[in-house]
Amino acid sequence: MTEKKPATLEIKGLKASVEGKEILKGIDLTVRQGESHAVMGPNGSGKSTLANVVMGRPGYVVTAGTVRFDGEDILKLLPDQRAQRGLFLAFQYPTEVPGVSVVNFLRTAYQAVKGEGISALEFRKHMKEKMNRLDIDDAMVGRYVNQGFSGGEKKKVEILQLAVLEPRIAILDETDSGLDIDSLKAVAQGIDDLIGPDLGVLLITHYQRILNYITPDFVHVMMDGRIVKEGGKELAAELEEKGYEGLRKELGIEEPVAASTE
Predict the structure, then answer these.
(1) Domain containing 70: what range?
(2) pTM, 2 dp
(3) Residue 201 CB coordination number (10 Å)
């Protein structure tokens, strides 16, 4: 049996607008299955826009460039088709789904992404294995999706969804947003446990703190819709020391006239 080649997400010269305003101004970025990348930047730099464009969220208009996954142009695909190819997006602000339990939501998502049916018993076994790995108790999956959940619980469900769906490359949009120290540590350790040869991660974050628990292979700094500096894990420590404004001055980058939206 031929070994499956690792998946590659390749972004070249990507420009995108929202409501007629250019947010992404030429992004070049390659993420391979098995690698961990952190995209860091101040608020308004376009980090979340990048995530939404890659996953095909409506309202974002690509004006130039390409996004390829395993060599296929995915910009013409619907969001669910991109998910079926093996891409995953964890939202910054997970929404509530009243009346739908976490277990039913996950089973429906699994069947949609995998394109195959699975019995309730088989799925429960698959999900339970992931729950044990992430230290998630049974009570959580019986509740309605995100209804009455704390910030930490919402993010744990997102990470459980990531584990259950087993994508090849995951984009995690500010997963650390709104988490206290204990929740951040639990969620970050869950992500770190999942990162491996079968999963590539593009971790979008504003703060360095989540990188205390997840050590990225590559760090990319975004400002005003562009990647302005790249490096290894040491770049995150440099940012912590200098701050974004310090780096901006060092690179001679002027402040944008008006901050772009995420």
Answers:
(1) 8-93+169-251
(2) 0.89
(3) 27
Q: What residue type is 63 in one-letter code?
A: T
133 CB neighbour count, 10 Å cutoff: 13
* Rounded-to-integer distance, Cα 202 and Cα 57, Å: 17
36 pairs with which residues across the strands?
201
| Domain CATH code at residue 175 | 3.40.50.300
Look at residue 129 and tell me if it is in a domain: no
Residue 145 lies in a domain: no
Asked whether residue 77 is domain-assigned, the answer is yes
The CA distance from 1 to 150, in Å, is 45
Cβ atoms within 10 Å, residue 103: 21
| Amino acid in position 200 | G
Cα 90 off chain centre by: 5
Task: Give CA separation, 14 vs 30, 169, 216, in Å.
Answer: 12, 19, 23
**Segments in the chain forming alpha helices (H):** 47-55, 79-85, 102-114, 120-134, 138-142, 151-165, 181-194, 234-251
C-alpha span between 113 and 111 (Å, rounded): 6
**Tokens (6 digits) for 87:** 């891409």
pLDDT, one tens digit per residue, over 101-154 is 999 999 999 999 998 788 889 999 999 999 998 888 899 899 989 888 888 888
* Half-sphere exposure of residue 165: CA atoms within 13 angstroms, side-chain side: 28
Per the structure, how many domains does the chain have? 1
Q: Give pLDDT tens digits for 230-247.
A: 999 999 988 888 889 999
112 domain residue, yes or no: no
